[in-house]
Each structure stands twice: as structure tokens, then as C-alpha cells.
Amino acid sequence: MNYRYSVIAVVILGLLTIAGCSNWLGKVNIFPVEQDVALGQQVSSSFESGTAAVVLDSSKNTVLYNYIYGIRDSILKTNLLVHKNDFPWKVRIIKNDTIQNAFCTPGGYIYVYTGLMKYLESEDQLAGVMGHEMAHAEKRHSTDALTREFGANLLLELIFGTSKAQLLQVATGLAQLSFGREAETEADNCSVDWLYQTSYNPVGAAGFFEKMQKEKNQVNIPEFLSTHPDPGNRVANMKKRWSEKGAKVGQTYTERYKKMLTYLR
User: Fold this and answer.
1) How far apart are CA 93 and CA 58, in angstroms?
2) Among residues 107, 165, 93, which one has the least CA distance to residue 141?
3) pLDDT by residue (tens digit) across 120-151?
4) Is the pTM of this model over 0.85?
5) Alpha-carbon dihedral sign for residues 199, 201, 203, 205
6) Which are the contacts of 208, defined by CB distance < 8 A and separation ≥ 6?
């Protein structure tokens, strides 16, 4: 073993010792930011190549994509996102009216289901949900979770080189991870903070959860989204944060939203 690897081995030993004593790897993200983008590309490619995902063609649905990119741009223009220029923040609309959901991969690949768009009642609600999902990427919650999931073994692989097969394994693991209460709360707070700097009603996402609570037996919403944390608590927490920031009243853009929905076929 040459000098370089001897030094690395010593560093690893120290990190593993710290990890064993204090759950250090659960608190520190061992991925470089570039790895978030690589993982996001992998997940995006795998998802879009699957038979279950029908992504609307952006060239044939320009009104819809211009609309949804306008929401994304409003959030990015707040300049509150540290990774505004690090991630592509690419948006894709999934044709599936039976699922009321949206998600964002690491590195900022945003997916919105037509079922969610038709379920929501106003633009501020969609902006709030998109802000929440973008926050998961901005705050790197997925790679935080992967660090906790794979721990020291992944650290070793990253130091000595990760193969494409290993990257695929990590990407597969990513799809099975869910966010905890702390991450969901942070994403909710970001949604409020970001929309507060726009013309939108800052608690647009709260409207989504309120509607979901009223119709919880009538919509196809992922179980983890509806139960962890409790939607009622999330609404209260978002409104509290909004109030603490000054309770600025924003726009819902309800009529503009209804017009956009006419382009969904």
C-alpha cells in the first residue's frame, strides 16, 4: 500500500470510529453535490424509460410546460436556493389522472402528475407543492438519507471509486427511501419562505393538505404523504411560519389556473 492509500486508510478508520460513537454519518452528507445530479439523471432516465410513466411531450404541450416552468422560475428568482445554478431543475408532466402527486429527484428533476394538477384548485397550491418538492432536492434530503442508509460502506466506495453498477444500486436504493418528519417539515418551511418572496399566497401548499384531509378517502395519494407527518399538523406549522414572517397576503391565481387546466387532455 502506497503512502496515499495509507493516509486514506487512517482517515477512514477515524471516520468509522466517529460514526460508531455518534452516528456521525447520519448527520453529514458524504455525497458531493455533483453526485446529486448524477443520481438524479439516473433516476430520471430509469423512470422515464419505464412503461408506467407517460411523460407529456413538451413540444406538443407548450402551453402547459410554459405555465409550469413559469411557476418554477418564480421560485428560482427568489435567489433563496443555494443550488439554483447547480441543478438543472427540469420539469416533466406525467400523464396519469389517477395519482395526485409530485416528486423531485436529487439534482432537481421535477415530476408533476396530471392527477395532481386536476386535483388542485389554484396556482398557489401547485406552486406550494412544487416548492416543497424542490426543497427536498435543494436541501439534499435524498442523499442525506442515502448516507444514513449505506453509511460507511458507501463512504469507502466513494473514496476508492464508484462503478456504474454501484451507482445504479444506489439509485435503486434511492427509490425505496422516504423522508422523515424533520425533512418534510424543512421542505414545508422552504415552500412558505420561497413563496413569501413571490406574488403567490405563501401557504399554497397548506391548501393542498387541507383539501386532502377533507377528501382523504376519495383520492389516490401515497400513504407516506398522507400520514407522515400528520397533514393537520403540517397545515398548522405552515400557517404559523407564515404568520411569524408577517402574514403577507398573496395571490391564488385561481382563474388563471382554471384556464391552464383546459389544456390538460
Assistant:
1) 9
2) 107
3) 999 999 999 999 999 999 999 988 877 776 66
4) no
5) negative
6) 120, 125, 128, 129
Burial class, 83, CB count within 10 angstroms (exposed 0-12 / middle 13-18 / buried 19+): middle
What span, in angstroms and rounded, lies between the C-alpha atoms of 174 and 13?
A: 26
Of 145, 94, 86, the residue nearest 115 (C-alpha): 94
CB within 8 Å of 193: residues ≥ 6 apart? 80, 202, 241, 245
Say if residues 255 and 202 touch (Cβ distance below 8 Å): no
Q: What is the pLDDT of residues 39-71, one digit of tens each?
A: 888 888 888 887 667 999 999 999 999 999 999
Rounded-to-integer distance, Cα 186 and Cα 132, Å: 9
Cα–Cα distance between 111 and 45 in angstroms, integer? 12
DSSP of 123-134: HHHHHHHHHHHH
Q: Regarding beta strands 109-113 and 90-94, do their DSSP bridges make them parallel or antiparallel, or are they unpaired?
A: parallel
Please work out, in degrees rounded to the nearest 5, the angle formed at the alpha carbon of residue 94 by the alpha carbons of 205 and 216: 45
CB atoms within 10 A of CB 265: 8
Q: Which sequence spans correspond to the domains of the chain?
A: 28-148+175-261
DSSP state, 223? H
Taking CA atoms, 85 is separated from 42, 81, 259, in Å, by 19, 9, 31
Burial class (CB in 10 A: 0-12, 13-18, 19+), 158: middle
3-state secondary structure of 92: strand
